[in-house]
Amino acid sequence: DTEVTQTPKHLVMGMTNKKSLKCEQHMGHRAMYWYKQKAKKPPELMFVYSYEKLSINESVPSRFSPECPNSSLLNLHLHALQPEDSALYLCASSQGASGAYNEQFFGPGTRLTVL
Amino acid sequence: QQQVKQSPQSLIVQKGGISIINCAYENTAFDYFPWYQQFPGKGPALLIAIRPDVSEKKEGRFTISFNKSAKQFSLHIMDSQPGDSATYFCAASESNGQNFVFGPGTRLSVLP
Questions:
Q1: What does the pLDDT read at residue A32?
Q2: Other Cβ atoms closer than 10 A to B102
Q3: Do A48 and B97 touch (CB under 8 A)?
Q4: Which residue of A has its CA nearest to B39?
Q5: CB-CB under 8 Å, B95 with A106
Q6: Chain B residues close to A111, C-beta within 8 Å
Q7: What are the tens digits of pLDDT across the range B82-107?
Q8: Confidence (pLDDT) at B100
Q9: Is the CB of A95 inside 8 Å of chain B's CB atoms?
Q10: Distance (Å) from the C-alpha of residue A48 to the closest C-alpha of chain B?
Q11: Is some CB atom of chain B closer than 8 A to the CB atom of A23?
Q12: Which of A43, A96, A106 sits opposite B45 (nearest CB)?
């Protein structure tokens, strides 16, 4: 299995809702990432988990809360989002977060719309 | 210093032509340079990558050229096809996995 899967594909939520994005990989990768991508822009790194521990938080607002229950799963919990948070949220994984193993493989993304 | 510059912003090429996209960086600690291809509504897909110990890497129709002294690298797509029409991102990172940075992207259109 060489895939990173993400659910849901699309999500529409109000500013008072609580929702979660899910990401899964079964490649034995030990690093997982969340990115945010706005239209016609490159992906922006949000969080990095290495061996199930949060290693990088790129000054992301607390309304985004990541969670890594195990080495195959990555969640992004959303609460009290703003309309400007509407974007494509991408999950990626790599064999490791350093050295020769940082080739990142991306999932298809979740298209999030905040009303 | 963590930025990666990319040009052109958009590129139109005839079928069968060569597409060339250029990137430049400042951070001398970068030592891994991948290229990603992204179709609308999809996640980026790793296309080809290079490390500074080689000056060129070729995989099929795709070639990366790397100039360490100039801190520049480029993607060449030979015999460009309409199916290559997508957005291409160069990226760079340090060996410790820190500072994984994407360039702003190039939208390629290959005309039939």
A1: 93
A2: 22
A3: yes
A4: A108
A5: no
A6: 41
A7: 999 999 999 998 877 667 889 999 99
A8: 82
A9: no
A10: 10
A11: no
A12: A106
> A78, A18 in Cβ contact below 8 A?
yes
In a 10 Å sphere around its CB, with 0-12 CB exposed, 13-18 middle and 19+ buried, how is residue A76 labelled? buried
How many CB atoms neighbour CB B22 within 10 A? 16
pLDDT of amino acid A28: 92
Query: Which pLDDT band, with edges at 50, 70 and 90, does B1 fall under?
Result: low
Cα–Cα distance, B64 to B46 (Å, whole number): 13
| Residues in chain A closer than 8 A to B86 (CB atoms) | none
| Sequence-separated (6 or more) residues with CB below 8 Å from residue A33 | A45, A46, A47, A48, A49, A91, A92, A93, A94, A104
Regions of chain A short of the pLDDT cut 50: none
Look over chain B and give the mean of its residue pLDDT values, rounded to a whole number: 93
Query: Looking at the predicted structure, is the pLDDT value of residue B14 above 70?
Result: yes
